[in-house]
Amino acid sequence: GLDPRLLSRANKRFHKQIHLASHNRFLVQQLDLVHRSMALKTTTSFAAEGRDGPALAEHEKIVMAIEARDGDAAYAALKTHISRAYETRLRIDAGEVKLR
User: Band of the pLDDT at 40, cuts 50, 70, 90?
Assistant: First the structure.
């Protein structure tokens, strides 16, 4: 797999671009808070074995929906992505996931 630290940095840039494109100051501020809180973690969800491929595919679905101006598809893709990332984070914190 790819280097989890590089993926994490690219992930932050990806999410920031999505939020900035929304022109919603509240979302941008929320993203900054999330990134600051995640910086306290010693591992990234990309360190979970097998998470990088699915996460990148989830990002691709989000971008495709946004480009198609399909709000329902974008919402569904974002909801799936957030749920899977959250579940991975919980499993990492519980020691249930093999890290690379």
Answer: low
CB atoms within 10 A of CB 11: 21
Q: Minimum mean pLDDT among 7-11, 72-76, 83-87: which range?
A: 7-11
Listed by start position, the domains of the chain span: 4-93
* Prediction pTM value: 0.78
Amino acid at 63: V
How confident is residue 3, by pLDDT bands cut at 50, 70 and 90?
Answer: confident
CA distances from 63 to 18, 58, 78, 83, 96 (A): 9, 9, 10, 17, 30
Helix (H, G, I), strand (E, B) or coil at 99: strand
The pLDDT of residue 42: 63
**CA neighbours closer than 13 Å in the CB half-sphere of residue 18:** 22
CB 3 within 8 A of CB 51: no
DSSP for 38-60? HHTSSS-GGGBTT-HHHHHHHHH
